Amino acid sequence: MSESRSGRTLPSGEARPVYNLDRLLEVAVRVFTERGYDGTSFTHLAEASGLSKSSIFHHIESKEQLLRLGLERALDPLMASTEEEGAVSGPAMDRLTHLIRRNIEIMAERLPYVKLLLGVHGNTETERWALAQRRAYDKVVAGVVEEAIAEGVVREDIDAPTTARLIFGMINSVREWYHPERHTTPDELAAQVCSLVLDGIRRH
Amino acid sequence: MSESRSGRTLPSGEARPVYNLDRLLEVAVRVFTERGYDGTSFTHLAEASGLSKSSIFHHIESKEQLLRLGLERALDPLMASTEEEGAVSGPAMDRLTHLIRRNIEIMAERLPYVKLLLGVHGNTETERWALAQRRAYDKVVAGVVEEAIAEGVVREDIDAPTTARLIFGMINSVREWYHPERHTTPDELAAQVCSLVLDGIRRH
């Protein structure tokens, strides 16, 4: 690609950045999150990427295809985490811990894509697909909380669906302030969330 | 006011809705939240309220004034809650519980205004004022968590600022799904959040 319009002065001899779908996706996801998906036009995508509109169409067929690819970057590992060994075998409390830890790891690794996912409205087929996936994920978690109650390791006065919503509300709020470089590591953050949710802050 | 342009057919004899600042504010806050503050024009406010632009200016001086009034509806009671008897006297754990309960009550009572507050970006002076108020509020809560640690009632391995962020991340996420008519009462929800945060879900 030689359509770079970034306006950046390139030192003589430095190659112009080679655009690939990955890089375009990264830029598009940032613009979707900043402007909202509905508020983003191909002109905005061209400006932000430095590509011409025709070069963008060389990579993708539609704006919605970019949205879908971006959402898959968050949803694929999240949904896959519900089928991992740690999520399907062992005591329910260990499975819940696994789901919480993996969710925080995925968020830290793929923050821009998770932010995009959490801002989805439901105006397009792709957005409705993403919302359905999120509901399926929430259902798995609520089910594991139910099982933990049945196994007698979780207090019986807990309401499983509300508890699942509150736990993942806490996790999802992490996107609003967390910077992997500035704050604690994903591992430490996951440990802190698990400790808070499972044992509370009170000294027992 | 008789400038209603809502297009609603009024049965003969029914008075046209009398607009006051309260009603205008309610409509504006809904539009700000749906379209974003930057994306809202006086034309949008006129359409949504059924008022002419000049009638809107009869009530307020600028769009930013409406934003400020809307944000105050959420911030005034939140900031006031930090000065209530229950928040300033007694053991730190009781004060923390008071702050959590009041926050959920205020959210349930004033949901549209709290949603507006939590979506603020910081592009205008009013938005930066609101963000500064939120930071001040968070600081109070983190301080109370610190005191609870110092009093020995909270586990020492707890990091106060992160814990405060996580607790209020959980509370703030409630806005995404909570409907006071459909779900549990604010009182019950507050009890559930406190129980989760203070004691965790594990049977001890």
Please give a structural write-up.
The structure is a homodimer of 204-residue chains. Chain A is an all-alpha fold. Chain A is elongated. The first copy, chain A, starts with 20 loop residues before the first helix and ends in a 5-residue tail after the last helix. Chain A has helices at residues 21-35, 42-49, 53-59, 63-81, 85-88, 92-109, 111-118, 125-150, 160-173, 186-199. Chains A and B meet through helix 9 and helix 10 of A and helix 9 and helix 10 of B.
Give the arrangement of secondary structure elements.
The structure is a homodimer of 204-residue chains.
Chain A: H1 21-35, H2 42-49, H3 53-59, H4 63-81, H5 85-88, H6 92-109, H7 111-118, H8 125-150, H9 160-173, H10 186-199
Helix pairs in contact in A: 1-2, 1-4, 1-7, 4-6, 4-7, 4-8, 6-7, 6-8, 6-9, 6-10, 8-9
Q: Largest contact between protein chains?
A: A-B, 40 and 40 residues
Regarding CATH, which class of the largest domain in chain A? Mainly Alpha
Number of strands of chain A: 0
> How would you sum up the major sheet of chain A?
none
Helix content of chain A: 55-70%
Please report the number of helical segments of chain A. Answer: 10
- Oligomeric state of this protein: homodimer
**Uncertain spans of chain A:** 1-14
Distance between the termini of chain A: 62 Å
CATH topology of the largest domain in chain A: Tetracycline Repressor, domain 2
Give the mean pLDDT of chain A.
87
Looking at CATH, the homologous superfamily of the largest domain in chain A is Tetracycline Repressor, domain 2
CATH architectural group of the largest domain in chain A = Orthogonal Bundle
Provide the succession of SSEs of chain A: HHHHHHHHHH
Alpha carbon gyration radius of chain A: 20 Å
In the residues of chain A, how many domains can be counted? 2
Q: Report the β-strand fraction of chain A as a percent range.
A: under 5%
The best one-word shape of chain A is: elongated
Structural class of chain A: mainly alpha
